[in-house]
Amino acid sequence: MIIDKLAYNSRLSKTAPTEKVIFAITSMIICIISNSILVSFITILAMLFIIIHIGKTNIKTVFNLMTVPLFFLIFGCMAIIISISTDKSEMILYIKLGKIFLGVTKYSIFSVAITFTKSLGAVSCMYFLSLTTPVNDIFSLLRKSIIPDFIVEIAELIYRYIFVLLDVCEKIHLSQDSRLGYVNLKTGYRSTVLLVSNLFIRSMNQAEKTFTALSARGYDGSINLLSEKHKHNKPFILFGLTYIFGVTALTVFLKAGIK
Amino acid sequence: MNIIETKNLSYKYDDTTALSDISISFEKGKITTLLGANGAGKSTLFLTLNGILKPTSGTVQFMGKDIGYSKKELKLLRQNVGIVFQNPDDQLFSSSVFSDVSFGAMNLNLPREEVKERTYDALKRVGMYTLRDRPTHALSFGQKKRVAIAGVLVMKPKVIILDEPTAGLDPMGVSEIMHLLQNICRNDHATIILSTHDIDVVPIYSDFVHVIHNGGLISSGTPDEIFSDPDLLRQHNLRLPRIAHLLEILNKHDSFDVDFSKGAISGARQELLKLLKR
Ligand SMILES: Nc1ncnc2c1ncn2[C@@H]1O[C@H](COP(=O)(O)OP(=O)(O)O)[C@@H](O)[C@H]1O
Ligand SMILES: [Mg+2]
To answer: Which of A38, A150, A258, B241 has a CA that sits 20 to 30 A from residue B111's CA?
Structure first.
């Protein structure tokens, strides 16, 4: 759960979450509807600029995180770039398998390039959000939204207790492992079953304890929390507005130019 | 004056009797310690004191009146009697420290400005103000414990109950928490009730002690009174503070004339100085 810690340490963590969510979603929509390699590239660069330069998140960490979607994208795009046909006239590179040609066409290269950059652009918008916005800010935003409160409450409790139960899970696993619980496949299966059933019982107990503790603090069916006021980050707002207007103008210009 | 007391209270969990016919009282504005071995019934007693558990028989009185169990009465009671649970992970449910602490105050339907002020104040009191933006799961055990205390302080209760507040803390953590409780008791005139089986901290901070065993009250008194009967403590899986034990050996084996009920360093020092100067 490193990504969670990164968000807390970002310089943008205290910026109003509404602004960040609006910015991320608008940028993503523009990136997708513009359908242009240039705009996608600009989106990726802009997001990296904000995350690294304004948010002061470590460059290396950000690039490491970017390699995750990159990996999936490369494999996904392999499937799109290769087309199968009995006609080799449009293919730039191909191999012959009996009567069928496996190869790459000019059109498939273009469509892969655009899919690739568009996806990466959209992903970087989401990375911007998750690297600058702590999860509980997202929760407080969701509370204000039209989503029913009890769903947000459940989500928040799940998020919090994932960490508690993860801890329990680690401890049980360690204690099993130190008593040779995973020494071979058979004991391994048995230990895993025990761990899972134990964890289930623990989470039931935890639910009861948490309910007791909530009641003691005056819980009466709804969880009302206050969150701290957020600050406005001037460089972010200036850059964000400039970027959105600029990219929108560019998109309109490109669309008009094509027609 | 007793702020909270029980009258012939019994509590059964299905078939285990956790508390049997216990009548115990807690004086206003004092720090009272509930001393008892594991399974003595300390946690169960605490849960009956703010109406989480309803006694099988007997009653709980708050400020001289039997407590009621209607939703409205319970809300009022819990506003006045706060519990800090033993395991902070049971209590801290929000992923943000600030939000978690605000919970109790929000439940009092106070204006937002006041909730904010109280939350900041409570966080400052426990020394967690600068860490208020941290996610809960990134805190150490001792820090979680402080946040849990802040979560109760924010409601400004008349009585603060703490279930084993020193368990699992390092020596520094123990004395910081106990100092904080002393502070709350003196400055806010709150009544502090805590449980422990850490006998060495009892004489330093407690005004009054109740010893319980197997769900029954064994004895009550000031720390000096309790520690003057070491055999009673031993019968119930407890012991004297180390210092008092030393004085007891000096008294019983070496026939020195020392008062071994002095469990705190300062009292023991007086006794030893008296002896040396003679
Ligand atoms: N939820 C429960 N269900 C059944 N028995 C319980 C439960 N909680 C505590 N007990 C039993 O009640 C007795 C008192 O427990 P407790 O109040 O937790 O003691 P202490 O806090 O002093 O260690 C023990 O015998 C314990 O096993
Ligand atoms: Mg207990």
So the answer is: A150
